[in-house]
Amino acid sequence: MDKVLKIGIIGCGAIGRDHCRRIIETVPGATVVAVSDYVAAAADDTAAKYGIRSFGNDCDGMIKDPEVEAVVITSIDPTHHDYVMKTLAEEKWCFCEKPLSQNAKDCEDIINRELEIGKRLVQVGFMRHYDRGYAEMKRIIDSGELGAPLLIKACHRNVSQGPGFKTENGVTNVAIHELDICRWLLDDEYEDVQCVKVRQSANSDKGYDNPQVMLMRTKKGCFIDVEVQVADGYGYDIQCEVVCENGTVKLPDPYAVVRRSRPAGWDSVQPAESMPIMTDWKERFIEAYDIEFCKWVESVNAGKLTGPSAWDGYVACVAGDALNASRGTSQFLKVETMEKPEMYK
Predict the structure, then answer these.
(1) Distances (CA, A) of 25 to 61, 94, 137, 172, 284
(2) Is the distance from CB of 20 to CB of 8 less than 8 angstroms?
(3) Rounded to 5 degrees, what are φ and ψ at 169?
(4) Helix (H, G, I), strand (E, B), or coil: what is residue 279?
(5) What is the helix (H) or strand (E) element at residue 34, kind and residue range?
(6) Are strands 149-157 and 237-244 parallel, antiparallel or unpaired?
(7) Is-contact 312 302, C-beta < 8 A?
(8) Each residue of 231-244: b (16+ CB within 10 Å) or e?
(9) pLDDT at position 270, please?
(10) Global pTM value
(11) Model confidence at 277, in pLDDT bands (50, 70, 90)?
(12) Separation CA 103–CA 317 (nearest Å)
């Protein structure tokens, strides 16, 4: 009989519940056997829906439970480091949603613990590696058919944010995906970065910068420009274009039916062409999440992780720390990392 990986999930919010459904219903070779959450009722409700065990708010107990072979962490960002370290203390496989931690120093703790164990046990949830659009862009760039990459122009626009959101979170929680995917697309590392405050949207009055622009320069001389709009926009809109020497490659818009018609009041307006804009991040990358978890489980069952590593999570945090430190200085700040351990090469 084929092995079935027994997974426990920490965090039963929107993404935790979605991953629970995904693993149980669509991922071969795995199942969810337990859930936990800071709010015990959230874990109880999720467990009841799927007929699995709830540890309530005893997340530590779930990590230690012998039946749980791997832990998926989807709790709030500030808890990620502690839960990863507790999972590594048990030397269990760990999938941690981004960011790996709130700062680079905590990521170093995780890397050092993995080095002590002598094996990669942590994968970070940078699901864009598994998106077909980004994967095809990387294939084209790596092929060299368009020459060397020169620039990346990207944007990350969200509809809204929850209470407590701060300007810094525009980097650490939102642009963290771009910080990861740009270096992956280019197979390059960051030299220096700067975060720039630009004219603010008239719709933004919630106490944080919106929009803000992140500028990055790489060691091979590429320039990256990321516009981040975290709220009060029009939808969930992810754009990315890589300018190469002999052409460009651009992320496609997600599949959507194009509608051509006269809008309401048709007698006074021109016919229009339109396509729906997504407002839900789960829908935009639903296939990427599915592929991500299938590949993760496949690699765990094979005994060797292949996806984004603790090192990738660390580098994104180092770049994020530098971006936040640069805000208001009008200066590029160096992105300085520890030496990359052999295990992550």
Answers:
(1) 25, 20, 30, 31, 19
(2) no
(3) -65, -20
(4) coil
(5) strand 30-36
(6) antiparallel
(7) no
(8) bbbeebbbebebbb
(9) 67
(10) 0.92
(11) low
(12) 6
Residues in the chain: 345
Q: Which two tokens stand for residue 242?
A: 């890589």
CA distance 197 to 277: 26
| Closest by CA position to 75, among listed 13, 3, 139, 153 | 13
Sign of the alpha-carbon torsion through 274, 199, 98, 332: positive
CB 54 within 8 A of CB 43: yes
SS3 percent helix, strand, coil of the chain, rounded to 5, is 40, 20, 40
Tens-place pLDDT, residues 314-329: 999 999 999 999 999 9
Distance CA 30, CA 69 (A): 10
CB 210 within 8 Å of CB 231: yes
From 239, 183, 180, 232, select the one nearest 208 (Cα to Cα): 232
- Order the strands of the 212-218 sheet from edge to edge: 247-250, 237-244, 149-157, 223-229, 212-218, 190-197, 333-334
Q: Is the pLDDT of residue 1 over 60?
A: no
- Token pair for residue 336? 């300085």
